[in-house]
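DATA SHEET
Item: assembly model
Revision: 1
Owner: S.N.
Input lines:
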Amino acid sequence: MVPFDWQAHDTHFVVAHLHYVLVGGFVFPMMAAAYYWLPHITGRQPVQHLSKPAFWLVFIGFNVTFFIMHLTGLRGMPRRVFEYPQEAGWEALNFISSVGGFVMTIGFALVALDLIMLIRHGRPFRRDPWEAGTLEWATPTPPPSYNFGSLPHFDTRGDALEPRKLGPELAAGHGYLGFMRNGWMETLSVDMVSGRLDHVVILPRPTFLPLWTAVATAVFFASLLAKLYWLTPVAFVAVVILFFLWTPSTGLKQEIGPLEIGRGERALHHQEVAQPPSWWAVVFALAANATLYTSLVFGAFFLWLSAPNWPPPGLDFTFVLPSLVATVGLTVAAIAGRMANGQPGRTVTGLVAALVAHLASVGAVAVLLMSIPTPTGHAASAAAFAVAVYVGFHAAIGAVLAIYGLWRWNTGFIGPSRVLDLRIGRLWHDYTAVAGLIGLAFPFVLQSLTGIGGR
Amino acid sequence: MKVSPFLLLLTGFVIWSGAFLGLYGAQATGCHLGWHQVEIGPISALRLLLAVMLVATVSLIAGLHVIAARSLGEPQSENARLLIKIGGMLQAAALVATVITYGGVMWLTLC
């Protein structure tokens, strides 16, 4: 295999192979998908059939261009060269590839032209032009902003439906949620294994807040890139406030119990169930966060083992008092977060305790950060500093979530069976306690290790 | 022992990835600190440590597979039964993956 590897690597053979995989596996399916679903998106059918010559031009052009490149590659032509000696003997093959390239380009131009013709001048057509078996064709075409007038119920596989019959029934409101109430945008959440009804999800009304949040988030990162560091905390505060402004629209001011959802069935509002999408979102965000954190800690230990200049001279990470205060703070916050359960008395006490404990942790971590010797001097100090910042940042967000809980309590969004906000906070407090205790132990472990393992 | 069926879906390959971190970390640490030069009987201390870690990982995943297989014998809801069945298969797949990917610590050159 060695001679073949040698011949194939970094030659035109690789370019040819890559494009065969890419065009065959990705570009053709994408074009097929465009031709399949554009009639759904536009509600139109093509009048001309430029697509057929376009297909053949792309197909032939692509094969002529890239099949030949296998041969130039096997004859030793390297990648990424724009000139080669005359004696190399690659001209004829490259010339054929170039011809193929022009043919393919004309083909893609025809595809583009055909799609523009379809979108601008196609013939308006009813729903489900292909007599497909899947649900998306049951909406009117082009689909209205709400997609389905009501949601269907089926107990068979979803690929042998009759959208042409199903569509008018759903449009007439004969499915679930075929009505409006309280100006809510509602949809259903189902069990992920059985598909049985679980609860009603109330979506936020259309608003520009996500856009402003995205702008503030972009400013946060851009300020770091542009070294406008004074702007970073401003943008961060703006992000937090904008996120919170978004929440009142999805809250519930009193317990409402199971809601009518049509077809004679009832289901709970998402604020009154155990695992709505927002709860799962925080679980998955924390899982991703934990991966990042593990990489950070692992990276420091990797440097201990493999980098030169370890142990660092005069390493001193003995800041026992602030670490102890932060340890107690994070633990108390997690326990207090569990105390807040939506009952009067316990909720406010628990949230205030969590807030105070988190603030104490933030203060202790700030002291700890100032005691780390020369964070820019050595990777060990830099790693200890980064991990401490991570812990302090999580405690700070924990404090913000405690304040959020108190605000939601005071505005009447929390009750004994409306504890979603508190449960989301609890996830964060628990994670912060576990990650924080590891992070607080980290500098001590690093210091004791550098003693035994330095080179 | 009663295990949540959903947990069974996750454990196999999470343990597998944890074992990757653990074995990789122990191998690098051991090489750095010279444990591969400490002889314990016919093998080095580092190989013994890695072998013990591998056996522990295999036993843990195999134990979860056995738990899944046993819970199938108990009365379960249809959903739970499906999840437990898939969970059991995932433990088996994780077990095979563990042996294939980490079995090398038994004979490959360590450092």
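QC remark: The CA atoms of residues 341 and 432 of chain A lie 19 Å apart.
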